[in-house]
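Bug report

Summary: C-alpha cells for S9 family peptidase differ between web form and batch submission.
Environment: batch mode, default settings.
Steps: 1) Submit the sequence below via batch. 2) Compare with the web form result.

Sequence submitted:
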Amino acid sequence: MKHLSILSALLLISVVVFAQKQTVSLEDITAKGTFNAKSVRGLRSMVDGVHYTTLEGGKRIVKYQYSTGKKVADVFDLEALKEESDIKTIEGYEFNGSETKILIYTNAEYIYRHSFKADYYVYDIQYKELKPLSEGGKQQIASFSPNGEMVAFVRENDLHLSKLKFGTESAITDDGEFNEIINGMPDWVYEEEFGFNKAYDWSPDSKEIAFIRFDETNVKEFAFPIYEASYPNNEAYSLYPGQYKFKYPKAGQDNSIVSVHVYNIKNRKTKAMDIGKETDIYIPRVRFTHEGGKLGIIKLNRHQNFMELMIANTNSGVCNTVFTDRNERYIGQDVLDNLQFLEDGKHFVYVGEMDGYNHIYLYTMAGRQVRQITKGEWDVTDYLGYNAKTRMFYYQAAAKSPMQREVYAVRNDGKKSLQFSTVAGTNKADFSKGFKYYINYLSNTTTPTLVTLHDSNGKQIRVLEDNKDLKARVEGFEMSPKEFFSFKTSEGVELNGWMVKPLNFDPNKEYPVLMTQYSGPNSQQVLDNWRVGWEQYLAAEGYMVACVDPRGTGARGEEFRKCTYRKLGKYESDDQIEAAKYLGSLAYVDASRIGIWGWSYGGFMTSLCLSKSDVFKVGIAVAPVTNWRYYDSVYTERYMRKPQENPKGYDDNSPINHVDNLSGRLFLIHGTADDNVHFQNVMEYVDRLVQAGKQFDMFAYPNRKHSIYGGNVRNHLYRMKADYLFRNL
C-alpha cells in the first residue's frame, strides 16, 4: 500500500508538471517565430474571376477555384520542370494578360526598403519552357506589357525592353548612372516616402511606356562606413573599412529634378511631357488612363499641400490639369494609390479629406465632382475597387472604431450598402476580378490570421487558413490578455490604449510599467489585431506593458491626424507624458517605476519625453531621430515645411536641443549602416549629452540598417533591452 501511494503521488506530480504551461521566452519572439501566423501568400485573381492562384512553399504556383476553394492545378512547379534549373525558390510572380506566360523572380538582393535586384525568368505555360529574361545581369522591377509580348525592366538605372517573340533586348534609355541619373525607378527618398519602386507604366494598348526620370546630380551625398562584420561578411574590409555613398536629400536641401517621358515602341522615340517649368516639385505617380494616348500624372508642390492631376497627350506632350486638391496643411501620401481611373474611361475615383475625414469621391475625367460616395465621421482606410456591373464601390474603413477595420461596399448613388466583415478586429479583403468572390483576412487580439473565401453576398465558402496549429501552440503558454482602455488628458483629449498586465496579476500590488509606442503621423499601434511581442515576455517577468496612440495618429479624422503640423513631437510627447501620469494613478502601478521605449519615430519620442518630464525612470531609444534637420526632405517637410521656413518648429521639438533637461536613465541603440535615420542622429546627440554632463548608455550595431537584424542581432538586441529594464526599472 505504501509503495502504491508513493507511485500514485509520483504519477500525480508528473501529470501536474506535464500540464504546466510555459511562459513566453525572448527566443520565442526574436528567433523561433513561435507566434507568427501563417497566411495565404502571393494571391492573384485570374482574369476569368473564377480562379485564383497562390504561391506555396516557394516552389509552386497553384490554381484554385473560387466557388469551392479547391485546387485545380499546379500552374508552375519547380520540381516538375523538364530541364534542371538554377532556381531554388520563387520569390514573386506575375502573369501576362492572357495568362499564357508567367514572369517569376528569384535571388533577390534588397537595396533599400522596396527596391531589389533579382534574376527574372519567363515561363511559357503551354510549352512548359523556362527562360531567363536577360543574360546581361540582374534586373529590377520587370513587368509584362498588357498584350504579354514584351517585358520592361530596369538595369543599372536604365530602362530596357525585351521582345519575347523575337528574343531581342534593347535599351530605352542610355544615360543612367549611379548617384546621377535614374530612369523608370525612384531615387531613395521617393522610394522611402512615396512608397513605391516602379516609376514607369505601360499603356493599355502596349504601344507606349511612360517613365519618370530622376536627375539627382545636385542632391548631396551621404556616406557611412562598411566594416567586415558578419551576416554578411565583408572580407574586403577586414583591415580598412569601406564606404557606402548615396544621394539623400535632407530637409531644406536640393531634391532630384524629375521629368516625365513617354517612349513609343513602334518608332523608338521618346518624348518629354510638359509638366511645367517649376522644377522644385514631386511626381510621385504616373499612370495611363483607359483612353489611348492619355497619361495621368500626379504632381505635388514642394510643400505637399497642393496636388494636381494632369492628363498628358502622349503624342504632343501637352499636359492639362483636370483636378486639384489644396490643403492648408498637407496631403497625405496614402492618397496616391487611391486615385484610380475607372474602366469606363469617363471617371476617376479619389479618396480625399474634403469634409475632414478620408472619403471616396467620384469625378468625371474633366475634373467635375459627380458626388461624394462615402460619408460619416470616420475614415476610409483603403479603396478596393469598383464593380461597374452592380455600380458598387468597395473599401476598407474604420467606421466602428479607429481600433478596428471593416470591409464595405456602397452603390454609387449611396442607396445601398453592404458590410462584408462580420467579426470585430482587423479585416482586409482581396476581391476577384468581377467581384463575384473575395478572400477575407481577419485577425484580432485572440485570433491569429484567419483567411476565408466568400461569395459576393458574404457567404463563407471555405476556410483557407485557420492557424489551427498556432492556436493549439498558444494554449500551451501562459499569457496575459491585451486589454483596451481609453482616458482623457488634462486638455480633454480622449486617447486610446492597450495594456498587458503581469502574469498572476494581483490588484493589491504595485507593478513597474514599460510604455511602448511609435506615435508617428497617421500611424497606429493600438489596433485590434494579432500580435504577440515581447510584452508577453515582460509580463512573465512581472512588468506591465502599455501602449497609447497620441494626437497625430490615424483613423480619427483630419484634425486629430494633422494637429501636429509644423511642430512634430510637441503634442505626441505631451500625450505620452499624460499617459504615463494616468497609468501612474492606477492603484496597481508603481508611479516611480515607469519606462518608455520606441523605435525610429518612437525613439525620437522616447528621447524627447525624457527631456520634457521626470515621470519616466528609464527610456530606450532605438534608431531615433534626434534633430529633424538630419532627416529627409519629403517626410520632414510634409509635416514641418523647410527648416528655413519653420526654424522654431524644428528646434523646439528636437531632443538634441533639450539635453540640459534630460532626466531618467537613457539607453541609445543604433545601426551604423542605417540609410534611413542616420547614425549621425545618435552621434551628434551623444556629443551634446556629454557636453551637458549627462550620463547615458549607448550601443551600436556594426553594418546594421534601420531594422537592425541579421544573424543573432535581433535576439541580442531584445536581450540587451530586457536586461537594461531589469537593472534600471
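Above is the batch result. After comparison, the two runs are identical; trailing whitespace caused the diff. Confidence is low (pLDDT under 50) at residues 9-18. The first strand starts at residue 22 and ends at 23.
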